[in-house]
Amino acid sequence: MDLETAIENRKSYRAFSSRPVDQELVEEILRRAGRAPSALNVQPWEVTVVMGEELERLTRRLLRAYRERSVACTPGAVRPLPARFQKRRRDSFRPLARLLDREHLTLDAFVGEGSCRFYGAPVAILICMDEAFSKERYLCIGAFLGYLVLSAHDLGLATCPVGLISAYEEDIREQLNIPEAKRVVIGVAIGYGDESSPLSQFSTPRDPLEGYVRWFM
Ligand SMILES: Cc1cc2nc3c(=O)[nH]c(=O)nc-3n(C[C@H](O)[C@H](O)[C@H](O)COP(=O)(O)O)c2cc1C
To answer: How far apart are CA 92 and CA 114, in angstroms?
Structure first.
């Protein structure tokens, strides 16, 4: 697949088939993700791959934590967001909310619960970073994530980044024996997309360049 096709067609999936993913394929995705740029090439990412019964145990724990504490699905802003960002979020998820409404589900509940069970994907990846790094190094984790989702798409796999689970960092750390000194920055669900699900028809729009670019020349 050429890069342009991969970039244009990749999207987050929230319905996965139960078809297992070969370990070699996961390794190849992670190897390619590791080609991402990072400041001074320190490659601050540390990855935990969870599959099979371990994933079932982890999702059970996350769902329990979610039901006890139910963290809302928000962009995690520290101040109210300027109107155009709020509008993008509302407009992007309206079609999904309508679809869920037919099933008597709210978007918040679907995304909250769905994220905690990695939307039923057979592989969950947790990307961690040592606390010793400054917050600027999250940029490198972002680059790694970008490479990862594109590589997975190129190899025929579907992904959904799940940032929401970082709210349950302590539970994840305990369950997977991740040291205190590591931040669980983000998770990624990986598997074969369930194309028969109406949820897989959903994709998000993007603003044209004028929405986010200024030129000085
Ligand atoms: C840092 C980050 C965190 C995200 N967290 C979640 C999440 O917790 N749950 C979820 O369903 N999607 C999550 N997403 C997926 C976004 O909702 C999705 O990327 C966005 O709506 C754009 O849609 P697309 O990926 O289909 O292009 C996250 C994406 C990123 C980059």
So the answer is: 18
| Ligand 1: centre distance to CA 164 (Å) | 9
Q: Which of 8, 9, 12 to mutate to test the pocket of ligand 1 (most atoms within 8 A of CB)?
A: 12
Spatial CA neighbour of 13 closest among 167, 153, 207:
153
d(CA 13, CA 98): 17
**Residues 37 and 134 sit within 8 Å (Cβ to Cβ):** no
User: Does 164 contact ligand 1 (Cβ within 6 A)?
Assistant: yes
The DSSP symbol for 216 reads -
**CA–CA distances in Å: residue 111 to residues 119, 150, 199:** 9, 22, 12
Residue 29: what residue type? I
Which residue CA neighbors atom 7 of ligand 1 most closely?
A: 162
Whether this model's pTM surpasses 0.85? yes
* pLDDT band at residue 140 using 50, 70 and 90 as cut-offs: very high
Residue nearest to atom 14 of ligand 1 (CA): 161
